[in-house]
Specification:
- This protein has one domain.
- The protein is about 35% helix and about 15% strand.
- It has nine helices and twelve strands.
- The longest helix is centred in the last third of the chain and has 28 residues.
- The chain is globular.
- It starts with a helix and ends with a helix.
- About 45% of the residues are buried.
């Protein structure tokens, strides 16, 4: 009986905390219409990829990227990773921890931090069309499609961004410049791989994931539109992984529930991963120190979803985070490699 009462107390506390996030305002520079003072920024020429590095990247197997292969990838192009934190202050610090994890594992820090304000993550209260516009801006400049990783309400917002890109929210999306923090007066980009003009709607990201999405966040007005849509993933992403915690009193998920599982409604490849019930909804992304332990780092580098090792042989603190971190890192390495290879092949085809 006492355990039952404690669970309801935890649920009530989580509701109060999430609802307190309603008072968190969006970034003050967010606007819904393009600014007349925001002409299209000149796209800087991408530095040529060293032919020797390009050959080594093309020789990599995206499904088997270890520490040595990460060093090869780091010498070439890297996609933007957009992290979205949860909606309660100071949860953004937890996604900053995950950003440091990625950087310490070898991902270029500059491709994780916001290019405008250099923060590690975006807010779930940022307009979803604005975030979709940033995806387009980044793809046009980098030549590689961004990846998106969300925690809690940030995971919900990622699915909303995917719906924006798929045209499920509006027929047009303005390109959003994160350097000037303004919408540009255009709804198209020049595709960096083909050189042709194309609309923002219809773009895709290479990889996206959400952990702890749903539950009490549906009570927030900015997420009402996601009712009945959160678990349906459109074809605006190649690979999507939905992480569910075995018993999550914030996201309202329970072990083995089919209703909590994500599913594709197009061409996206969707995976569902159930994390152990001992995982804490709030602290899942607290991972910055994992790479500092050689044993944990080696375990993370060797992780594969189809042949994972035993995490319970690792230090107790690592066990509370390492499965999620390793699975995301595996997908990040895979799509980092695929996007770099895609860009190299396109440049070679264009002469």
């Amino acid at each position: 009986m006492k355990k039952f009462q404690n669970r309801w107390a935890a649920l009530l506390l989580s509701l109060l905390l999430i609802l307190s996030g309603c008072a968190t305002p969006p970034r003050p520079d967010t606007v819904e219409t393009p600014s007349a003072q925001a002409p299209r920024a000149e796209i800087p020429a991408r530095a040529p990829i060293d032919p020797a590095i390009a050959e080594r990247i093309l020789a990599l197997d995206p499904e088997h990227i270890g520490g040595d292969e990460v060093k090869i990838l780091a010498a070439g192009p890297a996609p933007r990773i957009m992290l979205l934190h949860g909606g309660i202050y100071p949860v953004h610090l937890l996604m900053a921890s995950f950003g440091r994890f990625l950087s310490r594992m070898g991902y270029p820090e500059a491709q994780i931090r916001d290019p405008g304000d250099h923060e590690w993550s975006y807010s779930p209260y940022d307009d979803s069309a604005q975030l979709a516009g940033i995806v387009a801006w980044q793809y046009e400049r980098d030549g590689t499609r961004p990846m998106m990783i969300g925690h809690s309400q940030g995971g919900m917002q990622i699915v909303k961004v995917l719906r924006e890109l798929a045209g499920g929210m509006s027929p047009e999306i303005h390109v959003w410049n994160p350097l000037t923090r303004t919408a540009e007066d255009r709804t198209t980009i020049v595709d960096p791989l083909t050189g042709r003009t194309r609309p923002v709607v219809g773009l895709s990201v290479s990889y996206a994931s959400a952990v702890g999405a749903g539950g009490a966040a549906f009570l927030l007005p900015n997420q009402w539109s996601m009712m009945g849509k959160l678990r349906s993933i459109p074809d605006s992403v190649d690979d999507f992984t939905g992480f569910l915690i075995g018993l999550d009193l914030v996201a309202w998920t329970v072990p083995g529930s089919d209703d909590d599982r994500y599913r594709e409604n197009g061409t996206a490849k969707v995976r569902n991963v159930e994390l152990p019930a001992m995982y804490n909804h709030i602290t899942v992304p607290l991972t910055a120190d994992l790479p500092r332990d050689p044993e944990v780092r080696a375990w993370v580098d060797a992780y594969r979803p189809d042949a994972q090792g035993d995490p319970y042989s690792l230090p107790a603190e690592a066990q509370l985070h390492v499965l999620w971190a390793a699975d995301v890192w595996y997908s990040v390495k895979k799509h980092w490699c695929l996007e770099a290879q895609r860009l190299i092949r396109a440049q070679r085809a264009a002469g």
